[in-house]
Amino acid sequence: MSTAEPAAATTVDRILDACAEQAVDVGLRRVTMEDVARRAGLARVTLYAHFPSKRAVLDATFAREVERFNAYVARVVERFDDPGERIVQTFVRTCRGLRANRIVGRALRSDPAEFLALMAGDSPVMADAIGWCADHLRAAVAATPYEAMDADATAEVLTRLAQSLLISPPSGFDLDSDEGAAAVARAWILPGVHASMAAVEP
C-alpha cells in the first residue's frame, strides 16, 4: 500500500466530518462547498479534487452515515435467534435509529425537500440501504423456512416504508418506542414476508 492512500482517506474523512457538522449547524440547503472546505481546513481546490459538487459530498456524507448505522443495526439484530424477530428488529432499529440521527433530524426539520432528494429514486444512498438490508435479511434467515422469501423485494419494501414513515411521521402509529415500532412490523411487515415466502413455494 502506498503512503498516499492513508493520507487520501484521512482527507476524505475530514471532508465528510466537516460536511456532517455543517449540515447539522445550518441545514442541508445552506451547506456550501466553500464552508465545507473552510471547516475541514482545506483549500477549495483540494475539496473539488475529491468531490466535484455539493451533491457528491452530501451523497458521500449520507452514505457514510448509512454504513455506520447499518453496522449498529447488525450488532443489535444478531442478538435475536428467531428469524422473524430479526426482521421485526431490523425495522425497529431502522425507524428508531434514523429518527434519532442528528443529521437526519436536522434535515427533516429544516430541509425536508433536500433530504428527500438524497433518498429518492435510485439515489446512491437508497441503493446502498436497500442492498445492505437485502444482504442482512439473507444472512438472518439462512437455513430457516424464511429463506424462501424474496429478500430483494422485502428489503426494498422495508427500506422504502421506513423512509416514508421517517419523512412523514404518521399519527396513527407509535414509532417513538421499541414496542410501538415492533407492533407495526409484526402487523404490516411480517405478513408481507410470509406472502413472499408463499409465492415461491412449489
From TrEMBL:
InterPro entries: Homeodomain-like_sf, HTH-type_TetR-like_transc_reg, HTH_TetR. Residues 9-69 form the HTH tetR-type domain. Residues 32-51 bind DNA. GO terms for molecular function: DNA-binding transcription factor activity; transcription cis-regulatory region binding. Keywords: DNA-binding. This is Transcriptional regulator TetR family. It comes from Patulibacter medicamentivorans.
